[in-house]
Amino acid sequence: MFQLTNEEFKDLMFQIGTSKEGRGGRRKVPSVFNENGIAMLSGVLNSERAITVNISIMRIFTKLRSILMSGE
């Protein structure tokens, strides 16, 4: 797990339409997981929902890797 940089956070806020200051929304830089962190997390979480979400996230990482490798 790691924290996004301020620049990455600003990009993320723009992409998801985070509300302006004083109107709610996230103001702190979030902590995020990389692919290896998600894989390790799956060894700890055992609920049905956690397993389903973990599989979905790993599929997204796999799809992103294939897109980046193909140059699309």
- The radius of gyration computed from the alpha-carbon positions, rounded to a whole number of angstroms, is 15 Å
How many domains?
1
Q: Structural class, judged by helices and strands?
A: mainly alpha
Q: Quick one: overall form?
A: extended
Low-pLDDT runs of 5+ residues are none
Order of SSEs: EHEHH
Mean pLDDT: 77
Q: What's the multimeric state?
A: single chain
Quick one: how many beta strands? 2
Estimate percent helicity.
55-70%
Ends: how far apart? Answer: 28 Å
Question: What count of helical segments does DSSP give?
Answer: 3
What amount of the residues lies in strands? Answer: 5-15%
Largest sheet: 2 strands, antiparallel
- The strands making up the biggest β-sheet line up spatially as 1-2
Structural summary, described in words:
The protein has one domain. 58% of the residues lie in helices and 6% in strands. The mean pLDDT is 77. Helix 2 runs antiparallel to helix 3. A two-stranded antiparallel ribbon has the order 1-2.
Question: How would you concisely characterize the structure shown here?
Answer:
58% of the residues lie in helices and 6% in strands. It is mainly α and 72 residues long.
How is the topology of this model organized?
Layout: E1 2-3, H1 6-16, E2 31-32, H2 35-42, H3 48-70
Antiparallel strand pairs: 1-2
Structure keywords:
two-stranded antiparallel ribbon
